[in-house]
Amino acid sequence: MHDLEQGAHIAPWLKPLWDSLDFQKFPNAILLHGQSGIGKSAFSVELARALLCENSSLILRPCNQCEACNWFNSGNHPDFIALVPETHRKLLPHAEYQSDEPTKKGKPAREDGDSESSERKEKKNISIEETRQAIENLAIGSHRGGNRVILIYPLEMLRSDSANTLLKSLEEPPSNTIFILIADRVDRVLPTIRSRCRLLTAPRPDRDQGLAWLKIQLSAVDGMAINTNDAEAIYDEQGGAPFSVLDSLIARHYKDELTISILASRHLLQSMAQGDRINWLETAEKIHKARYGFLLAIMQRWVSDLQSVKQGGEPRYYPKHLTTLRGLSDMARTSKMLQFWQSLINARRHENHPLANRIQIEALLSQYQLIFKD
After folding, report:
1. What CATH number is given to the structural domain containing 108?
2. Same structural domain for residues 197 and 267?
3. What sections of the chain are H helices per DSSP?
């Protein structure tokens, strides 16, 4: 059988969702949403491949053998339009298949936008020019006479003018055109866009299933020794998002640009574990080069665990730090902790704006220190 058989790029926990799709009566627009790092982008690329496949048998789509599949797999299908920021283009087929080395190809594309990549000059937003050009091209019939697929990810990163342009097309969708929209945070998507799509919720795997999948993926990476304890610890830290964990572990193995954020994560957790003794200036100096949104996510997970332990519960993200969290929870002032939590929420709303990250981090960590002071 062909080595890229049907569903090869779909995580097992998303297979039931795949099996529920009716390709014979597929909607004009779907909005796939769920936690970052669980495989939504790989699922969506496979879905686009299936919708463009020209195999007459519905059961075998995508066949990965017809001319349309070959065009798609080489990244040159004329009826596939992908609107993604520069920071997400590794998710697309042309990047996935361009390497001749299987183990290097195993160095995964950054999944679902929550990867730990360092701050780069690549654009993080989808420009209005790209959106308009894509929409204008819809007026032209499909090149191969079949479906035309537009994939947009992450949907919540569309600027308001781009979102309005998209909305007009969703209101009057061109014939044989299918929109695959992907969002990590569906609450950030315009209600008018949500209402015109069929919503698909991507589930997160249970811990055993996610870890089992992760070990299989890691075993395929040439020369990589799997440390089970490391894998499980990072799995919990990433909130049960296997693709994000895979990125982290392979980044450590290849020592690529993600190493900056891995080290920043370690410094940040060590510092937050100090409570009122945190040296927030020194910490900000060590971590500010990492992606701001990534650092905010770590802070949120830590404070979420701190709140849980304070209320007599168990930590979800950092169970191996239970003793430390219990000690900190005894000193934490609930009202100040809630204020800090609100500050983190506000910061997440503006995490992609061109702010002075170091100053923002210093301010947040300084506020964190006050949680443990009267």
Report:
1. 3.40.50.300
2. no
3. 15-19, 40-52, 67-73, 93-96, 102-105, 128-137, 160-171, 191-194, 207-219, 228-237, 242-254, 259-272, 280-287, 292-310, 322-331, 334-349, 357-370
